[in-house]
């Protein structure tokens, strides 16, 4: 008999399958303190939470029998994932359960800002009969969707029914998938310049923070409208207030804020052109039931040693396989991360070739690290367990090959990322005494350790370029730790890889890119 503790308010209908299971005993105790949980958790095989319970390392250290922690929702910020992984506890979530709820809220917000419904309601119940609220129709308008994952795709389907033209942006949206959805592909700036309405559905990452900011507001159509039911910080709040004052933005609807809850003096709260709600994206009866159903089903699978999905930490790997692969995990993730940062366009295929010592073991755990690295800067919540699932859901083909020999290396991991625009290849190895080394970028031989802040400079192999790069960085107080130059032939194309002590300011990178014979400059963080 398995014992399951439900420590947060979770829909009883959603967890009914746990109550009905003959081999499960469910105990529901909410509002427990950390010490109270510590005192009882040793009895339980599974723990179900929402966002209230903080599942700390102290709790998990006391959980002698705990096999799984289920989060009835998407975010797992309240669970110490590192501690769970160390203890061998699987953490699962329910990423799909709130898709429709958030999609429908997005549409409600879009229609509310188009017709100024909350503003009209406020005046009417206040005793004013004001019929001067002249809105706009959605029909024949252009909707820009930034982020075409589960929620963005559902929004697109509904927008088409409303007679809207839809332009979508997503770094992993292929032309084939866009065509299926009836969506025109566009860049962020193309969408910003053309759209009458824009809704954002990306995760909040360093790349998407202030994805819409002052430069984007400067090229928008006057009178456009913005909706954010995703994450606070994707749209620059202060820049948007300025755009409203300048007449660029006619209205906005926000369910999320950069800091939640917002302070009483937040400019959105007293702006008649901004509609705000308190992070209600998943707040429907159906969504709450769906996430509970999803997580309950997964918990049962894990307790019964059946196949499961939606785990957000590392599943068990046989000890003999783990011992051989573990030294390569960091290398694989770094190769993937660099490729993810230098590849342009939507990824449709990742080809991984293992050579030498790696051909006689199951390399699938290592492949997960590589795929995670490729997508980690674009997809929120990606990890070594769900990486393959997320890649598949975006129609990304993963090809694994093995070779008996690896030229001059006893082991070699070579990864090629293919997009509609280009192919990029990196190869890496483990060298005794030197650790993880990147030994090839595309056709160029190199030898460097992928750590910290890097600059990748494509250039023509001409005298003086290295000196100019060093002088420019030095004059801007950017210290070079290491430098590698790779070329195929004298005087041809070449690359330069620099490790620098701190990230170079954007204006320095821009000045570097203008130097004679320099083709491209990319700042990387590994």
Structure description:
Catalyzes the reversible oxidation of 3-phospho-D-glycerate to 3-phosphonooxypyruvate, the first step of the phosphorylated L-serine biosynthesis pathway. Also catalyzes the reversible oxidation of 2-hydroxyglutarate to 2-oxoglutarate. InterPro entries: ACT-like_dom_sf, ACT_dom, ASB_dom_sf, D-2-hydroxyacid_DH, D-isomer_2_OHA_DH_cat_dom, D-isomer_DH_CS, D-isomer_DH_CS1, D-isomer_DH_NAD-bd. Keywords: Amino-acid biosynthesis, NAD, Oxidoreductase, Serine biosynthesis. It catalyses: (2R)-3-phosphoglycerate + NAD(+) = 3-phosphooxypyruvate + NADH + H(+); (R)-2-hydroxyglutarate + NAD(+) = 2-oxoglutarate + NADH + H(+). Residues 454-526 form the ACT domain. A 7-stranded parallel sheet has the order 8-7-6-9-10-11-12, with helices on both faces. The chain has a 6-stranded mixed sheet with strand order 14-13-15-16-17-18, with helices on one face. The chain is globular. The protein contains 17 helices and 22 strands. α4 (81-87) links the parallel β4 and β5 (90-92). The protein has helices spanning 16-20, 34-40, 57-61, 81-87, 99-115, 117-125, 150-161, 175-181, 188-194, 214-217, 237-245, 285-303, 319-342, 364-375, 387-393, 465-475, 506-513, and strands spanning 2-6, 24-28, 46-49, 68-71, 90-92, 142-146, 165-169, 184-185, 197-200, 224-228, 249-254, 274-276, 347-356, 397-403, 411-419, 423-431, 435-441, 444-448, 453-460, 480-487, 493-500, 518-525. It has 526 residues and is α/β, with parallel strands linked by helices. α5 (99-115) packs across α7 and α13 runs parallel beside α14.
């Amino acid at each position: 008999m398995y014992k399951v503790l439900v420590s947060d308010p979770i829909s009883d209908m959603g967890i009914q399958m746990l109550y009905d299971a003959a081999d499960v005993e469910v105990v529901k105790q909410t509002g427990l303190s950390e010490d109270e949980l510590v005192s009882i958790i040793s009895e339980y095989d599974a723990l179900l939470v929402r966002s209230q319970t903080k599942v700390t390392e102290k709790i998990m250290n006391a959980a002698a029998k705990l096999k799984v922690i289920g989060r009835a929702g998407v975010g797992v910020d309240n669970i110490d994932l590192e501690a769970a992984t160390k203890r061998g506890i699987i953490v699962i979530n329910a990423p799909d359960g709130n898709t429709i709820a958030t999609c429908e809220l997005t549409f409600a917000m879009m229609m509310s800002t188009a017709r100024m419904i909350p503003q009209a309601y406020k005046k009417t119940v206040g005793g004013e009969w004001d019929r001067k609220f002249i809105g706009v129709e959605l029909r024949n308008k252009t909707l820009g969707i930034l982020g075409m994952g589960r929620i963005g795709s559902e929004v697109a389907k509904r927008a088409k029914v409303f007679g809207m033209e839809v332009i979508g942006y997503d770094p992993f949206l292929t032309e084939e998938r866009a065509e299926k959805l009836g969506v025109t592909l566009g860049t962020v700036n193309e969408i910003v310049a053309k759209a009458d309405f824009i809704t954002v559905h990306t995760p909040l990452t360093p790349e998407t923070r202030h994805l819409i900011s002052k430069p984007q507001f400067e090229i928008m159509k006057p009178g456009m409208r913005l909706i954010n039911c995703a994450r606070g910080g994707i749209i620059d709040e202060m820049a948007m207030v300025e755009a409203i004052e300048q007449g660029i933005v006619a209205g906005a609807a926000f369910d999320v804020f950069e800091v939640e809850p917002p302070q009483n003096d937040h400019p959105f709260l007293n702006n008649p052109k901004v509609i705000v709600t308190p992070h209600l994206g998943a707040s429907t009866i159906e969504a709450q039931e769906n996430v509970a159903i999803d997580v309950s089903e997964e918990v049962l699978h894990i307790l019964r040693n059946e196949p499961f999905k939606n785990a957000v930490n590392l599943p068990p790997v046989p000890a003999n396989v783990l011992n051989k692969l573990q030294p390569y995990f960091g290398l694989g993730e770094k190769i993937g991360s660099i490729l993810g940062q230098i590849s342009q366009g939507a990824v449709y295929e990742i080809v991984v070739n293992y050579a030498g010592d790696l051909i006689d073991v199951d390399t699938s755990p290592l492949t997960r690290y590589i795929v995670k690295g490729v997508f980690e800067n674009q997809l929120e919540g990606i990890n070594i367990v769900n990486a393959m699932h997320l890649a598949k859901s975006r129609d990304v083909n993963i090809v694994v090959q093995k070779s008996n020999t690896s030229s001059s290396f006893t082991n070699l991991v070579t990864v090629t990322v293919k997009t509609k625009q280009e192919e990029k290849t990196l190869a890496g190895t483990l060298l005794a005494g030197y650790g993880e080394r990147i030994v090839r970028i595309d056709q160029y031989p190199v030898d460097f350790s992928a750590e910290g802040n890097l600059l990748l400079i494509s250039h023509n192999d001409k005298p003086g370029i290295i000196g100019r790069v060093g002088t420019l960085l030095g004059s801007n107080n950017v210290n070079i730790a290491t430098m590698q130059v790779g070329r195929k032939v004298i005087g041809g194309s070449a690359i330069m890889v620099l490790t620098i002590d701190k990230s170079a300011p954007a204006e320095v990178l821009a000045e570097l890119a203008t130097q004679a014979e320099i083709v491209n400059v990319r700042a990387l963080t590994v």
